[in-house]
Each structure stands twice: as structure tokens, then as C-alpha cells.
Automatic annotation (TrEMBL):
Matching InterPro entries: AIM24, AIM24_sf, Trp_RNA-bd_attenuator-like_dom
A Pfam family matched in the record: AIM24
Gene3D superfamilies: Mitochondrial biogenesis AIM24
Superkingdom to which the source organism belongs: Bacteria
Protein name: AIM24 family protein
Amino acid sequence: MNIDIQDEGDSGSGQAVAFTVEANEEIHVLHPQQIIAYQGPSSGRADRLMDVKGMYRKRKLIRSDMTGPCRFVAALPPGYRVKTFHLDGKSDLLYDFRHLFFYSKGITMQTRVLSMKNMFVTRDIIKVKFSGPGSIGILTEGTVCEAELHPFDPIYIDAGSIIAYPENAKLELTVYGNHLASQHMSYHWKMTGHGPVMFQAGRQSRRFERDNNEDGIIKRFLREAIPFGGVFIK
């Protein structure tokens, strides 16, 4: 399988991602509505309902199973990118299911149910863990960053920016800094453990741009100076 990412730099028009699937290869696309062009036998695409164990009990999702030989192009919204990861069957990273764009034949998924507290903050129910050799494609917003966890020295990462973290990681939802800092920041994960954690920069970049473009200096000052001003002052 070959993946060709096509865009025009920072035009803001989003990406077009072209997939070339060889004979006897198969790829599962979890956002089939984004497929805008297809070349190959009509029978090369088969959509089906999928029901990942433990996820959204009554809510089923559609995936497209694309079998080669074929070629298709998928369009991504502005600000989103696809990051491809090649797995050797030994990864213990947990991913947000909503970020998953595709996975190749040979990859299987297991689910991990979050605690009620974490569900409330992240607005998600499960994380997914991949096993087996193959490739997965993750939807990201902006630059993907990676940091190594430490067993005792924690790292604080914006909860909405996390892409993946090791299953062994210890997580605690919190804020940090002095009184003013903790009042106007969003929830962060306080993380310790072993292995890499991946996070994206695009969410915060767009928030910064929106605040600078839409807010006057007085409104911005009030939001940051008044306790919980970010909640009441929109």
C-alpha cells in the first residue's frame, strides 16, 4: 500500500490523501464519507457496520473495506492531517477512537473503558489499543509532538491535545501553576510512566488565533483576570 499526501502548503484548504492498494491488500477506512474519488473494480469497496466492543453500545459506525487493486482519494477538512504509524505488533499505546482514520489488514483493535471522571472531562468513553503488524492512520490537528514519560517526574499535557499514551501510564486530571494560572487553563493530564506520549499542537494554535482576532484587549483582560472568566465571558 502506498499513501501519497497532497496539499498546497498552508493554504487552509485541507489535505487530499491518495491511497494505492495493491492486489491482496486491504485497508479499512473509518471515515468513508471523505472518499471523493475511486478507481478500481466496483466490488473493491464494501461498506459495513462495525461495533467495537464496549463502545457507544447502541451507536454503530460504518467503515469501508477497500480491497486492491484500486486507488482512491480522501479529502480532509482544513486544519486536519493524517499521520501514519507502522506497527510491529508490540505497541502498547492507547488511542482516541475518534482520531482513527484507517488501519490495514492484520491490525486488530482492543478497547479500554475510561473511568466516569475521565469520560466527563474528555467526552469519550473508550480508548483503543492496536495489535498485530500493519499500519494505522491517525487524524491530527497541526504538528504532532512526542515526549518521553518519566516514572516519577510528571509531564502536564492539555487533555484535548493528547493523541496516544502508553497503557502503563498513570494519569490524573488536574491544573497546575499559581492561582491565576489554574483558573483560566483547561484541564491537563498529569502523566507519569514509561514510554512515549504523543500530542498535537493545532487545537491550541487555533484557539490562540481566534482569541487574538475576535477579542478586544478589555474583553481578553477580563476573561483572564476574573476567576473563571473564560467560562462566563465568551
